[in-house]
Amino acid sequence: GENVEQHPSTLSVQEGDSAVIKxxxxxxxxxxxxxxxxxxxxRPQLIIDIRSNVGEKKDQRIAVTLNKTAKHFSxxxxxxxxxxxxxxxxxxxxxxxxxxxGAGTRLFVKA
Amino acid sequence: xxxxxxxxSRVICKSGTSVKIECRSLDFQATTMFWYRQFPxxxxxLMATSNEGSKATYEQGVEKDKFLINHASLTLSTLxxxxxxxEDSSFYICSASEDRGRGGYTFGSGTRLTVV
Lengths: 111, 116
Prior knowledge:
The complex is a heterodimer of chains A (111) and B (116). With 111 residues, chain A is mainly beta. Chain A is built from no helices and 11 strands. With 116 residues, chain B is mainly beta. Chain B has strands at 4-7, 10-13, 19-25, 32-38, 44-51, 57-58, 67-73, 76-81, 90-96, 106-107, 111-115.
């Protein structure tokens, strides 16, 4: 069945450094790739998304890249801040509504 | 922006009883809502897709008689955990999209269920 692999499971960076989280999807029909941030005890929040007709998208300190050939997509956070500490989930969706989530990456930003 | 309200946020129940969780889209209509289960420090596992006016679609391994889903209106879906057992203790969270599924989903605040 459909599968999304996410790495690393835990990532610790120094404040100001960049953080990169990578995901791989299996369903070649996937055309929508959202990223969610979940702070402890709170609901996941959509932070950025990318569609299959775009290779890169940026929103301030956050950027996402997509390589359809390799079925890879990545989240890049620059100039990390302590408030970026959270669990980040990648996800993919094919033509229907069903969204498959990665296992999550726990990001720690050390001040 | 889209708001999804989920209630209750926390519930403790005794083994063998049933618990109903509500998920409401407050400012948009959602023909489809999703129910997820999340174990501590783990990802969101899709349990079922709730379709307004029709039967829910359950993921493999999810007992439909155990987790009853009703989506009677365009703004409300309910998940009832029947004959709850301690192993049903988990964080249940719903989501919906205002963009007819073309965009990202808004999540409810989640319900932490503890079965004692």
